[in-house]
Amino acid sequence: MTRLREKVSWQTMWGEEVIVGDITVTPQSKALVMHAPFGGLVWNRPVAVLVERGERTERIPIVDVTRIVELGLLALSVVFTVVIFILSAKKRRS
Amino acid sequence: MSDETDKVLDSVIESQAQNLELMEKLFAVAQPGAVYGEPVASGEYAVITASEILVAAGSGYGVGGGPGAETLEAETAVEGEEDERTGFGGGGAGGGVSMGRPVATINIGPNGVQVQPVVDVTKIGLAFFTTIGAMLMMLGRMRRASGG
């Protein structure tokens, strides 16, 4: 398990602060890092930004609309396939 | 013979060094700086782009050598002649894939911070038509199977 954790890890990291006027923005990213003996994979994506203004701190998530729509379409096609299989099985039985 | 071995060993060490360099470059992508662009400022406003990045790479190499006259059968080995079948060799190859896609823009101004998503219409369109196509194919199969 420890070996797997060394080879595959989810890393949440904070980037450098960006100061514009009285607003301080700190970006956050999440990366999937996979190590292999002669290669590797890194999937890095933005997660949120931490906004500090005066004494107020707010976390604004970054929503990947394209990914959500893609996953929605994938889920739709899976549900459709399952329904079609169930209906055709029922028809065959009757 | 020893010169050849040295050459092969040198090439292996060089390959390993190149591999390490490649891996360092690859894992540098895991830093937040790779995902968020440099802020572009204009007056009181600034814009930061946020992108998704996927990088995968792999490499491999191998070495090998022939035994030469020592292990050759007696009738094939000619005395006083150097055996041409003796030798070492090595080779390597590598490959990889990288993908980047804008996800959102972070707009900073006097009114606060707004995160605006970047919608990839082409990608969504392709996924939509693929889904519709798959659904129609499935429907057609079902109709054919039920004989109607």
Protein traits:
heterodimer, A: 94 residues, alpha+beta, 5-stranded antiparallel beta sheet, 2 helices, flat, B: 148 residues, 4-stranded antiparallel beta sheet
Account of the protein in words:
The complex is a heterodimer of chains A (94) and B (148). Chain A is an alpha+beta fold. Chain A has helices at residues 2-7, 65-93; strands at residues 8-14, 18-20, 23-36, 39-53, 56-61. Chain A has 2 helices and 5 strands, in the order αβββββα. In chain A, strands 1, 2, 3, 4 and 5 form a 5-stranded antiparallel β-sheet that branches. The termini of chain A are far apart. With 148 residues, chain B is of the alpha+beta class. Chain B has a domain at 120-148. Helices cover 39% and strands 36% of the residues of chain B. Chain B has 3 helices and 4 strands. Chain B has helices spanning 2-28, 32-35, 121-146; strands at residues 40-42, 45-66, 87-109, 112-117. In chain B, strands 1-2-3-4 form a 4-stranded antiparallel β-sheet. The longest helix of chain B is centred in the N-terminal third of the chain and has 27 residues, at 2-28. The radius of gyration of chain B is 30 Å and the shape is flat. The relative contact order of chain B is 0.15. The mean pLDDT of chain B is 80. At the A-B interface, strand 1, strand 3, strand 4, strand 5 and helix 2 of A face helix 1, helix 2, strand 2, strand 3 and strand 4 of B.
